[in-house]
Amino acid sequence: MALRKILHYPDPLLKRKSETVTEFNDELRQLTEDMAETMYDAPGVGLAAPQVGVLKRVVVIDCSASEEPNDLLVAVNPEIIATEGDSVEEEGCLSVPGFWASVKRAEKATLRYQDVDGNLHERTADGLLGICMQHELDHLEGVLFVDRLSPLKRSMFKKKYMKMLKEREQNAAEA
């Protein structure tokens, strides 16, 4: 396993749509293992392949509350097949470090996906897992959580975030 570099906004790769996985092989297994290790190291609760520069429809999620990872969901070619209710929760993203915002999503979502061997599964979730599933699937469509903000909040985010990036670059140059 190996840690992969997580791409950060405004990297243009994050805005691209991912391709369907057609080969279930060792390369796919390696990708999912690397993604899980990268997610846990970050630390985060979800990671989509585009966030590590791979435009494939693959996500890893683990919303377990313990210090020990124990509920890893590896979803290949995932799609949300049903939603229910509405929820507004605070979200963050490994590709948008240091920024959090309230995002409206479905309260409950049903996910259909394949595992690394190509077997088909379905899983229904609410709470953090349900939100995380929706968040990660957005990445596969080239959508970041900040794209779901109102135009005014998105504009404020861009100004604030770009200022934060400039300050980081200046601090790094001075160090």
Task: Note down, in words, how this protein is organized.
With 175 residues, the protein is α+β, with helices and mostly antiparallel strands. It has one domain (12-147): Alpha-Beta Complex (Peptide Deformylase). It has helices at residues 26-41, 127-140, 151-174, and strands spanning 46-48, 58-61, 73-84, 87-91, 101-105, 108-114, 120-126. The strands form two sheets. The chain has a five-stranded antiparallel sheet. Strands 4-5 form a two-stranded antiparallel sheet. A hairpin with a 5-residue loop joins β6 and β7 (120-126). The longest helix is centred in the last third of the chain and has 24 residues, at 151-174. The radius of gyration is 16 Å and the shape is globular. The mean pLDDT is 94.
